[in-house]
């Protein structure tokens, strides 16, 4: 349970603010697996849209006190039938994380990351960004833990170029309830009945997801859920460097998930994509210009995780 809040924050607060359910551990099923190599792949299909996501977490060095790891993730949005200015969009990120356990029971560390969310990733400075996140997690108590953060980013939807403090409070009173509340995110997993589990998370102001799962047998679950994701991209050659292309994607879905071996974990979802919109703006909540809608339609997603 050590440093749960810190370990969750690192993948969620990406440089460009494009947090997604894909960035969380499978099933919201516990703390990230420190010291393990984790590969994830998730294709998603919708009317007018094809999405691919992949990530890698790779430990480079570890002993009883220290962990050094490399992380990489990428997503590709292929708009198969959409009006201009939509084209293929990419979000590519690489990071290096150092963490160290202290004699007093706390943990400190830092992450350095580079990212480009664009139609032409890393083409030049206008479509590239970097950040540095420092964190300290206090010694866990019997049922809770506090973590502190300082996040600096060269380009994001708010506070670019300004070190921003943050915190996380992890609460784990029983094996059936686990939650992390912080700034600007929250996470909860609650087994509220013998076979029923509620899972949810939010990263303000861009992502929210919730689901209720029913355990059919063993670790296998079926679940019903909903998700909203707002992504933003820096288009190459835009006249105003502060301007972003925003894309809203929301859906409801029915799914099934289960480990299928000691290494592999599988998720399958099908549902409805709701009103999907895109537009351009210099601010997250300002009125978009050139706003257009892709409408709704059928959606399906596959998620495969390998951990070893």
Q: Can you walk me through this structure?
A:
This protein is an all-beta fold. Helices cover 3% and strands 61% of the residues. The chain is built from one helix and 16 strands. A 16-stranded antiparallel β-barrel has the order 1-2-3-4-5-6-7-8-9-10-11-12-13-14-15-16. Strand 6 and strand 7 form a beta hairpin. About 3% of the residues have low confidence.
Q: How does the SSE layout of this entry go?
A:
Elements lengths: L3 H9 L25 E9 L2 E14 L3 E13 L10 E13 L5 E12 L10 E9 L6 E10 L10 E11 L2 E6 L2 E6 L5 E8 L3 E11 L2 E14 L10 E16 L4 E18 L7 E19 L1
Antiparallel strand pairs: 1-2, 1-16, 2-3, 3-4, 4-5, 5-6, 6-7, 7-8, 8-9, 9-10, 10-11, 11-12, 12-13, 13-14, 14-15, 15-16
Key terms:
globular; 308 residues; single chain; 3% helix; mainly beta
Number of strand elements:
16
Radius of gyration: 19 Å
Quote the beta fraction.
over 45%
Strand order of the largest sheet: 1-2-3-4-5-6-7-8-9-10-11-12-13-14-15-16
- Helix-strand category: mainly beta
Helical content, roughly? under 10%
List the helices and strands in order. Answer: HEEEEEEEEEEEEEEEE
Please report the distance between the alpha carbons of the first and last residues.
19 Å
Mean pLDDT equals 86
Largest pleated sheet: 16 strands, antiparallel, barrel
Q: Given the structure, what is the number of helices?
A: 1
Anisotropy-based shape: globular
The stretches of 5 or more residues where confidence is low (pLDDT under 50) are 25-32
């Amino acid at each position: 349970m050590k440093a749960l809040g810190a370990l969750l924050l690192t993948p969620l607060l990406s440089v460009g603010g494009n947090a997604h359910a894909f960035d969380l551990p499978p099933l919201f099923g516990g703390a990230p697996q420190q010291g393990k190599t984790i590969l994830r792949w998730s294709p998603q299909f919708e009317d007018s849209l094809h999405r691919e996501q992949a990530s890698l977490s790779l430990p480079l060095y570890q002993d009883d006190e220290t962990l050094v790891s490399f992380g990489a993730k990428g997503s590709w949005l292929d708009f198969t039938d959409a009006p201009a200015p939509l084209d293929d969009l990419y979000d590519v990120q690489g990071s290096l994380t150092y963490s160290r356990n202290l004699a007093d029971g706390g943990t400190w560390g830092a992450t350095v990351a580079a990212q480009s969310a664009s139609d032409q990733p890393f083409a030049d400075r206008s479509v590239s960004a970097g950040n540095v996140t420092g964190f300290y997690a206090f010694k866990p108590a019997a049922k809770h833990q506090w973590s502190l953060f300082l996040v600096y980013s060269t380009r994001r939807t708010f506070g670019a170029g300004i070190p921003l403090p943050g915190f996380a409070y992890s609460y784990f009173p029983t094996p059936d309830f686990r939650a992390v509340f912080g700034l600007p995110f929250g996470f909860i997993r609650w087994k509220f009945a013998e076979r029923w589990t509620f899972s949810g998370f939010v990263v303000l102001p861009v992502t929210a997801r919730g689901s209720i799962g029913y355990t059919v047998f063993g670790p296998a679950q079926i679940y019903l859920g909903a998700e909203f994701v707002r992504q933003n991209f820096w288009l190459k050659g835009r006249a105003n460097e502060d301007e972003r292309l925003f894309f809203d994607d929301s859906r409801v879905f029915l799914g099934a998930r289960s480990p299928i071996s000691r290494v592999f974990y599988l998720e399958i979802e099908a549902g409805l994509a709701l009103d999907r919109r895109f537009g351009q703006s210099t601010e997250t909540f300002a009125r978009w210009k050139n706003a257009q809608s892709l409408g709704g339609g059928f959606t399906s997603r596959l998620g495969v995780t390998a951990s070893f």
